[in-house]
Amino acid sequence: MKVALDATPLVSGTGGVPRYVRELRAGLEKVSAGDQFAYVTDQDVPGSLGPGGGWLERKWWLAGLPMLLRREGFDVFHGTEFSVPYVPVCASVLSLHDLSPWMESSWHGAGVGRVRARTPWLLRMGLATMVLTLSEAVRRRAIGKFGLKPERVVAVPLAASETLRPVAVAAPAEPYLLYVGTLEPRKNLPMLVAAWRAVRRSHPVRLVLAGRRREDGPRFESGDGLEVLGPVPEEQLAALYSGALAVVYPTFYEGFGLPVVEAMQCGAPVVTSTDESVVEVAGGAAVHCDAHSEAEWVAALTDLLERPERRAALRAAGLARAATFSWERTARETLAVYRAALIAF
């Protein structure tokens, strides 16, 4: 089987979807030596196949991509971010990471408009042979929203990188709470900062924000216990997670919530929201608070600060939960979806 993976998300470099694309390909090549996997995109991504020089091929989703897939003899195309070719020349799998493009408009920048308009049409016209979601929660909602046949939609969870493990770090002069992820409206960071400031009045704890700030994301300045790191290199994440008193993830909505699993795999206690995908992923190994209730967050964080035995219990539960996820599992289950798409096409 020869599989083309859409490498377009790799243009942005950081974030959950680029990590998904890189880890998935590595996992696929590890578990399936008999198959071939290649990146394809019309963007400047090293090592990928792209359009030729003709004007027609530059119309990527309509003509260029179908022409490339046919020319190179691909059996399956995996649209790793909400899209598949407009002309079905081979089996296709569409990754529907979440339903946020069709939810709160303030969560997104201008770039989501194409996804919001195009993806429902691709799904309803049956141009995606199979659909991948990251959680059963999103799978259920996608089936209802887009009228999909349940057998066409499969939930395959993500995993944390194998490089993210508990590491020994020197105790910081002042303990810190850690947020890892994009700084964007959907992550609910102003509420988190307000709750942390309330806790800090009686407990000496810092708040560290690690991640790329999206153009429309909230702006915070470092100072008075708040540390804004910006994007953090992969090789530094394990130490950052391992040294945290707790990882805080107050998101309004997720398709999966990868930082929750990353934190657990590094042995960090997790406090996160009651979003149904995050609850599913955490599997009872995290503290959940209403994303809209600052008071709940203040109470939960205060409890963790004052009860080391509670933190120890969460660490143990989180490590056990994280062990149920792996990129090998993700790759094997995704490979099964590719084979199902071949049969159904």
Defining key terms:
345 residues, alpha/beta, Rossmann fold, 6-stranded parallel sheet, 12 strands, 39% helix
| CATH domain topology of the largest domain | Rossmann fold
The CATH architecture designation of the largest domain is 3-Layer(aba) Sandwich
Structural class: alpha/beta
The CATH superfamily of the largest domain is known as Glycogen Phosphorylase B
Could you give a short account of the major beta sheet? 6 strands, parallel
Radius of gyration: 21 Å
* Through-space gap between termini: 14 Å
The helix/strand order is EHEHEEHEHEEHEEHEHEHEHHH
Tell me the count of domains: 2
Description:
This protein has two domains: 177 residues, 3-Layer(aba) Sandwich (Rossmann fold); 147 residues, Glycogen Phosphorylase B (Rossmann fold), CATH 3.40.50.2000. Helices cover 39% and strands 15% of the residues. It contains eleven helices and twelve strands. The strands form two sheets. A six-stranded parallel β-sheet has the order 2-1-3-4-5-6. Strands 9-8-7-10-11-12 form a six-stranded parallel β-sheet, with helices on both faces. α1 packs across α11, α5 crosses α9 and α7 crosses α10. The protein starts with a strand and ends with a helix. The model has no long low-confidence stretch (mean pLDDT 95).
